[in-house]
Design brief:
Length: 286
């Protein structure tokens, strides 16, 4: 990869406030410039994946993502390299990476750009994105596949799931989360297990017919969305609950929104259907 002469789309920081008098110091990673991007980070990406985050001190969301990436970078002990791009001072670098806003994260694997996300996500979802990058890079001969560490509570949960004992699995995941509140796999496992519990005794055809006949029945709409996402119809589940957020008010609207956020946690954060649904939810609420 070489830096293009036409740097492409501009980074849209127009909605942000004035820059702070003093730019905060980034605690981890390498501060990226046009020079070291070409001379250091691109060649480095042939031996380990490089993850770049475009940020601005005027964007609290981007600063939050920056903090999460710095923590995960320290946790992974040099399995990948973190590069930080200050969009206020290195706008040409941000433009070269085709950033449109901040936060914006992109990976470089063997000198090839892989866009990751351009929203503020929780640590658990960013952890999954990084693991996916490490796996993808290893498949291309760059770095090593991350070692999967199975916690004893997770082993208990998986055994219970194999035996169809969903409540025991749920308790095991909750026990793991009480010990490791930020564990992304425990959060995902718990969300998946709770979905299994909610859908185990449902008749899909009957629920679908009833939900169609009673659009004002929020309980039926939540059940139908659970069944849709269980069957892989992610977009239908998201659209159904976004419609509920628009149609209902007060407590029922809150229930629909919270249920939708639970379903969001089951989907890859880089999935375009999830990105679209997040924007639609924001529009429905505001």
């Amino acid at each position: 990869m070489s830096l293009p002469s036409n740097f492409g789309r501009a980074v849209d920081l127009s909605a942000l406030g004035k820059p702070p008098a003093q730019t905060p110091k980034v605690a981890a990673g390498k501060e990226v410039t046009a020079e070291n991007l070409a001379a250091e980070l691109l060649p480095l990406s042939r031996t380990k994946p490089v993850i770049l985050i475009c940020w601005s001190a005027r964007s609290p969301e981007s600063m939050a993502v920056l903090e999460i990436l710095a923590k995960l970078y320290a946790d992974d002990k040099a399995a990948w390299e973190l590069g930080t791009v200050n969009a206020d001072t290195e706008s040409k670098v941000a433009q070269a990476l085709q950033a449109r806003t901040v936060p914006y994260a992109v990976a470089i694997i063997a000198e090839q750009l892989v866009p990751l996300f351009e929203q503020n996500y929780p640590e658990a979802q960013i952890r999954m994105v990084i693991d996916k990058v490490l796996t993808l890079a290893a498949e291309q001969g760059v770095g090593e596949i991350p070692q999967e560490q199975i916690e004893p509570e997770e082993e208990e949960a998986l055994a219970a799931l194999d035996a169809g004992k969903f409540e025991i699995a749920e308790a095991a995941y909750k026990k793991l989360l009480s010990r490791k509140p930020s564990d992304p796999f425990a959060k995902l496992g718990l969300a998946q297990t709770q979905l299994l519990i909610r859908t185990a005794d449902l008749n899909p055809e009957q629920v679908k017919i009833s939900a169609l006949a009673q659009p004002e029945n929020l309980h039926l709409q939540l059940q139908c969305a659970d069944l849709e996402i269980s069957s892989g119809d992610v977009e239908a589940a998201f659209n159904r609950l976004i419609a509920c957020v628009r149609a209902f008010s007060d407590d029922e609207q809150g229930k629909a929104k919270n249920h939708l956020l639970e379903l969001f946690s089951l989907v890859d954060p880089s999935d375009p259907r999830l990105i679209k649904a997040r924007n639609a939810l924001a529009n429905a609420l505001f």
